[in-house]
């Protein structure tokens, strides 16, 4: 299984403003340790409210790679590098689209 994340903005109609793509939930432990949340916890959150949490999580993971590499899933599905890139992509999209809503499927 994986998360598939998009950012939606509603003016007169809803439209997608960013497609973050998908990434395996096997890295949930990393996100939980770095942010106290997994990607599923962001569903329905306004992007501007997520920026601080995502930013702190990104910096934590970036600055402590060995800690998070040790959490690489044993089944080989997902890894530290991919998890960090996915987190960065979501963070940048939230910064660029602060009035959007995060959808996680």
Question: Gist?
Answer:
This protein has one domain (2-104).
Question: What is the averaged pLDDT score?
Answer: 95
**What would you call the structural class?**
alpha+beta
Number of beta-strand segments: 3
Q: What's the number of domains?
A: 1
Mind explaining what this structure looks like?
This protein is α+β, with helices and mostly antiparallel strands. The chain has one domain (2-104). It has helices at 28-35, 47-63, 65-69, 80-96; strands spanning 2-10, 14-24, 101-104. It has a 3-stranded antiparallel β-sheet with strand order 2-1-3, covered by helices on one side. A hairpin with a 3-residue loop joins strand 1 (2-10) and strand 2 (14-24). The longest helix has 17 residues, at 47-63. The protein is globular, with a radius of gyration of 13 Å.
Features:
105 residues; alpha+beta; 3-stranded antiparallel beta sheet; 3 strands
Secondary-structure map:
Layout: E1 2-10, E2 14-24, H1 28-35, H2 47-63, H3 65-69, H4 80-96, E3 101-104
Antiparallel strand pairs: 1-2, 1-3
Helix pairs in contact: 1-2, 2-4
């Amino acid at each position: 299984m994986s998360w598939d994340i998009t950012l939606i903005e509603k003016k007169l109609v809803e439209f997608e403003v960013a497609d973050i793509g998908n990434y395996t939930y096997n890295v949930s432990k990393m996100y939980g340790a770095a942010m106290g949340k997994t990607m599923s916890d962001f569903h329905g959150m306004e992007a501007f409210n997520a920026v601080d949490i995502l930013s702190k999580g990104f910096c934590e993971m970036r600055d402590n790679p060995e800690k998070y590499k040790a959490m690489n899933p044993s089944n080989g599905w997902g890894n530290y590098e991919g998890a960090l890139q996915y987190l960065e992509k979501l963070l940048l999209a939230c910064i660029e689209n602060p009035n959007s809503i995060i959808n996680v499927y």
